[in-house]
Amino acid sequence: MSFQNLGLSEPILRAVREQGYNEATPIQRQAIPAVLAGGDILAGAQTGTGKTAGFTLPILQRLSSDIRPSSPFTRRAPRTLILTPTRELAAQVEESVRTYGKYVRLASTVVYGGVGINPQIAALKRGVDILVATPGRLLDLHEQRAADLSKIEILVLDEADRMLDMGFIHDIRRILALLPKKRQNLLFSATFSDEIRALADSLLNKPASIEVARRNATVDIIEQTVHPVDRNRKTELLTKLIRDGNWFQVLVFTRTKHGANRLAESLDAKGIPSLAIHGNKSQGARTRALSEFKSAKLQVLVATDIAARGIDIDELPHVVNFDLPNIPEDYVHRIGRTGRAGAGGSAVSLVCIDERVFLRDIERLIKREIPRVVVPGFEPDPNARPEPIQTGSRGSNRPPSRGTGRGGNPARSGSGNGSGAAGSAPHGKPPARGGAPQGQRAQPARPGPLHRSGGRGR
Question: Which of 27, 98, 55 is nearest to 185 (CA)?
């Protein structure tokens, strides 16, 4: 279906066409009319389906059809609030707002932790229509009386499942209490756990339900392979696979931050340009790593699950699970970064005897057995015995306990991290800029005029 048939105005359609998109994705075909109708929405969409444009386009349409005049005596308060779990995702979403809204007279800004708060306060004082935020920094700004949430008409919870995983539920409930009772609520989630259902029941009023793929489904066109290997030979095997296959733009997942650092250093020492990205890295280091990876200057990016949420690359060719995740749904999120928008891709998992339970749970979730391929010379030791896997605060294959205090929120401590997509339709295409150093901006991969009249506070 063409975007011209979805009720969008010519200025918005013009911006969409300039990004090279004509046909809407399934989530966009369903979400855009539903948002324009004004009702609440509960939407399930995997990474790479185009959900960002699915809500940014109709929000721009609704607000631009009712422009509020500015006044030198009153600050223009935000009318739309988009909450995201990570800094990179927040920056990416706000980039999409400005790219697709470049021909309408609306202002937007993004606020998140890890960077100076004063430029963000200044941007809000100048007045904005659309505010994209991580929960922790938004509460900080509200406590400083810099964020007026009394005029919010539309609330978006993007990647709500990840926000709950990161322990943001208490901050979210505090924010909800600050908003007007009468508003439109849009909840987007890749998975629908019992906690997501409970949040939806308390937040949404007779929502339209949208789900574009079967729950927790992996992308069918992704070639998935398991390479059994001994735990102490994983790095050696990965090196061989990258060299023999001449792989570039390889996104490798590890279970821990320390493991990410160690693997990136080992690969780099072997002549494979590699960097690690995780919450303990400075914002500048993470931004540089993402930029080099997207431009293919960096051959391998090693990431933890949370940090990888900021990576949005067309047709990412290779995803490697160096460590299998102990939460099966995270496997779906990981491999969903390849095979986007009809493009092929490969997802390789290096699995040792310790991870057999994790692999079993993943295969139960995706309802298929992943082919095993033993690489010659890397046959696992038949006498090896499994060892316990350290998974941070969880020693078993169980979801993490949710943090409750404000100090435990990653965006508040400056260690929060971010997602998006590409293809025949807009998918929140402009890449995440993470958080460029104060006063600077990382440049998007596909430059173009950017709309902004509400300040550039970071």
Answer: 55
